[in-house]
Amino acid sequence: MLLPLAGLAAVLLDRVFGEPPRFHPLVGFGAIADALERRLNPAAGATADGHGGRAATDPAARLAGAVAWLLAVLPWAALAAWLCAPAQLGLVGDVLLLTLALGGRSLTEHAARVGADLLAGDLPAARRHVSFLVSRQTAELDEEGVARACVESTLENGADAIFGALFWFAMAGGAGAVFYRLANTLDAMWGYRTPRLGAFGFAAARLDDALNYVPARLVAFAYALCGRTATALRCWRQQAPHWDSPNAGPVMAAGAGALGLRLGGAAVYHGHVETRPVLGAGQAPAGADIVRALHLVRRALVLWLLVWLALAALCAVLF
After folding, report:
1. Hey, which residues does 272 pair with through a beta bridge?
2. Does an H or E element contain 278, and which?
3. Residue 90 half-sphere exposure toward CB, CA atoms < 13 A
4. For residues 213 and 205, what is the distance between their CA atoms, to the nearest angstrom?
5. Integer CA distances (angstroms), 99 to 7, 185, 214, 278, in order
């Protein structure tokens, strides 16, 4: 019963204080990851137009990426496990590490700022602020495009920055949350199909897919239960298999259906237009729908916590 209470405490701490304003450990980790990539990636000289890149199936680059992943993640996960041992910080360490792994308040602040920009009619500011949340190009997006990008990011990043960390915390305590968040960060940094990272980031992308497989589907189900359930489940079943990502598809299809919104469509990544399948059903998103998406994530989080506490209480009674 103590671990669910520790998870609840970390969620509340993240809600109240958010991420450290300076010297966040993930910033330092990102610098280490950048250094490892520059040092170990055979295609580190690749340019935006592809010169110097390697085929995405290049075995040497894939092996280098796997080695870099291990070097980046395992030492910190081992340190986290040591800190959370009863002889060290114990449950206090679990709470602190999960708090650092969560990004709920940060996601809320960034997404809400984009929504406020759109409602105020300040499209240039909305384009600039949504660029902090998405990897697509935002300079030429119209209001609908900005709102769509922000809602998609809210649904998907909610699964990563909140629910994924909670799931692995439930599985392995603070060390599990750290392991997951570092793996997720490496996917965000290396998991792109570009000439430079297509092969090197293969391990990071596949490992992140594996770690998110179960939590993504639990998130999709929670989104469905907290919104238009029948529509969300139908969109998940019919649309998610056509999405490129095995985990983002269920999350965004169910989330879009729960909100009664139509997401997906064309987006520009790294100078190339990608035509993505439509997700959800209903109207195109607008600025006000960003707040609705944040409320959906929040309701799903409450549902997760209630179910976790109920299961823990039941296990305590039975065993």
Report:
1. 269
2. strand 272-280
3. 4
4. 12
5. 9, 16, 22, 35
**Calpha distance 7→167 (Å, rounded):** 10
Q: Which residues, listed in sequence order, are joined to residue 305 by a DSSP beta bridge?
A: none
Q: Which two tokens stand for residue 8?
A: 């609840």
Half-sphere exposure of 130 (CA within 13 A, CB side): 32
Cα gap 5→122, rounded to integer Å: 42
Q: Give the C-alpha separation, 165 to 283, whole Å.
A: 31
CA end-to-end span of the chain = 12
How many beta carbons lie within 10 A of that of residue 260, not counting itself?
16
Flag whether pLDDT at 48 surpasses 50.
Answer: no
Pair of tokens at residue 57: 């199936």
Band of residue 220 on the pLDDT scale cut at 50, 70, 90: very high
Is 80 exceeded by the pLDDT of residue 46?
Answer: no
Q: Could you tell me which of 69, 6, 13 has the C-alpha nearest to residue 37?
A: 69
Q: In the structure encoding, which two tokens stand for residue 215, read together? A: 């939590």
Please report, for residues 35, 161, 174, 214, 278, the alpha-carbon distance to residue 168 in angstroms, rounded to integers and kept in the order given.
27, 12, 8, 10, 30
Q: Which helix (H) or strand (E) holds 275?
A: strand 272-280
pLDDT digits (tens, 9 = 90+) for 169-178: 999 999 999 9
Of 180, 153, 163, the C-alpha closest to 301 is 163
Interatomic CA distance for residues 193 and 43, integer angstroms: 13
Domain residue ranges of the chain, discontinuous segments joined by +: 2-42+59-318
> Tokens 């909140």 — which residue?
162
Q: Does residue 250 have a pLDDT over 70?
A: yes
Averaged pLDDT, 209-237:
98
Give the tens place of pLDDT for each residue, 125-144: 999 999 999 988 999 899 99
DSSP helix/strand/coil, 265: strand
Query: Phi first, then psi: what are they for 85, rounded to 5°?
Result: -65, 150
Q: Tokens representing 198?
A: 């297509």
